[in-house]
Structures are given as structure tokens and as C-alpha cells.
Amino acid sequence: MKCQSRILGLMLLAAGLHVSAQENDYVAALSGQVATAEIEQLPITGLMKVTEADGTVKYLSTDRRFVFVGSMYDLWKGDALAAGVTTDQRIEWDRNGVSVEKISFSVGSVVGQSTIIVAPECQDCKDLLKLALETVKDDLNVVLLSSSKAGSRDNALVWCSKDRLDGLRSVYFESRQPDPEDINKNCDQFGLMLADQAAQLFGIGQLPMFVDSKGNGYTGEQAIYAVSNQGKSNE
Q1: What is the distance of C-alpha 35 from the center of its chain?
Q2: E strand or H helix that includes residue 141
Q3: What is the pTM of this model?
Q4: Any bridge partners for residue 38, and if so which?
Q5: Within 13 Å of residue 73, how many CA atoms lie on the same side as its CB?
Q6: Distance, CA of 114 to CA of 59 (rounded, Å)
Q7: Are 110 and 219 part of one and the same domain?
Q8: Which helix (H) or strand (E) element contains residue 168?
């Protein structure tokens, strides 16, 4: 219902009904974003998918008059129509010499097929990480990014913990440092250095991100939906 209200509101804006100055500015900004975004045809008559440079998804009528903001679902298939953007479109790390495999660690005993990318400064990251640890479990890799010195120190504590999963829970969920005896003093921090490089390239504005076993990347509400689906498929 909330999504429908937002869509209806934008339709009224586009139709010119009771548009305030602030709303006019918003519509003008949308026009500029749509003009420079990637356009993709959809299996829906009259609609196109608009993917902006930062990965934000909107929907545009084929006559380019109406724009729809919010999630859209295929009720026949029972999933989101905007099923995420492939990882290579979202993440430029590999092109800059940063391999995700080198900056992630596995939660389980073997390397997982799904990856969650988080930062200690991001509360949504902690919420999604908790959900992923509960549902995806052993099929999960974790990438730690940060935009601050304090966050980088927290990530170093996790990375250098003898039990990284325990260190992750301590730092991200309990806001406490692992005990000194639980830290590997000869920790290889090469992966952390690459993660810092990745944070500079990618930033943390789009985090948390979940990359499913098929290589599709999801953020925000779509990430929660994707984590839940991945957990169900692993059962």
C-alpha cells in the first residue's frame, strides 16, 4: 500500500495536479536522472526499467512521461521484478585489481556462494548481516568495508580474530573488542589493505549489499528480500 501511494503521488505530480515548488524541483531532478540512466525494456506493456549510475531502480512509461518509484512485483512468479543488477555492473573492483575473493572471509567451513558487503558505520548493514547469519548461514562470505579510521580499526579486529565469526559478532553486534588472546598477532592484513582500496573505489553509500549465489547484487529492501529467498533455497 505504501508503494502504491508513492506511485500514485508521482503520477499526480506528472499530471500536474497541485504541484508545489519543492515537488517541481523533485520532478525536474527525476527528469535529469532519467535522461542519463540506463534504460531496459520490461515484459510489461508500457513500462521500461531505469537503472541509475548508483544502481537505483525506477520505472518509466514508454512515452517517458510517467516515472514510478518503489518496488514492483511479479505476482505470478512471486518475486521482485527488479531482480537486482549483476555484480559486474555494480562493482568495479576487479577492473581496479581488487578481487572480492581476496577481501572476503567465509562464515562457514568452506567458501560460500553468497556474499554480504558491510561496514561498521552502517546500522542497516548490521541488521542485514544478522539476518544473513541466521538464514544463509554456512553459504555466506563477508566483505568488510569502512569509510573511517575507527571503522577500519574495527574491521582489522574482525579480520585478525582467530575466530572471525566470533570477532564479527563482538565488533558488529556487541560493540566490544575481542579479547587480546583471541587476536592473531601475525595476521596477514593484505586483504584489509585491498578492502580499504575497494571502499575508496566503491564507497559505502550503497551498503549493505548482498550478492546471491547467481551473482546478482541487491541493496536496501531488495537485499532483505534476496537474503530471505536465499535462505529458503538453502533449506
Answers
A1: 24
A2: strand 140-144
A3: 0.62
A4: 51
A5: 11
A6: 28
A7: yes
A8: helix 164-168
Do 207 and 173 fall within a single domain?
yes
Q: Tell me: the pLDDT tens digits for 2-39?
A: 333 333 333 333 333 343 454 455 556 666 666 666 77
Q: Per residue in 211-221, is it b (16+ CB within 10 Å) or e — as a string?
A: bbeeebbbbbe
Q: SS3 string of 84-97?
A: CEEHHHHCCCHHHC
Joined grid coordinates for residue 186: 601475525
Q: Which three cell numbers stand for residue 155?
A: 574491521
Cα–Cα nearest to 60, from 106, 131, 11: 11
User: Residue 235: helix, strand or coil by DSSP?
Assistant: coil
105 and 34 fall within a common domain: no
Domain boundaries, position 45: 2-82
Is residue 70 classed exposed, middle or buried when 0-12, 13-18 and 19+ CB atoms within 10 A define those classes? middle
pLDDT reported for residue 129: 93
- DSSP state at residue 48: E
Three cell numbers at 120? Answer: 561498521
Q: Is the pLDDT of residue 64 over 90?
A: no
Q: What is the CATH number of the domain that holds 36?
A: 3.10.450.70
Q: CA-CA distance, 134 to 232, in Å (whole number)?
A: 11
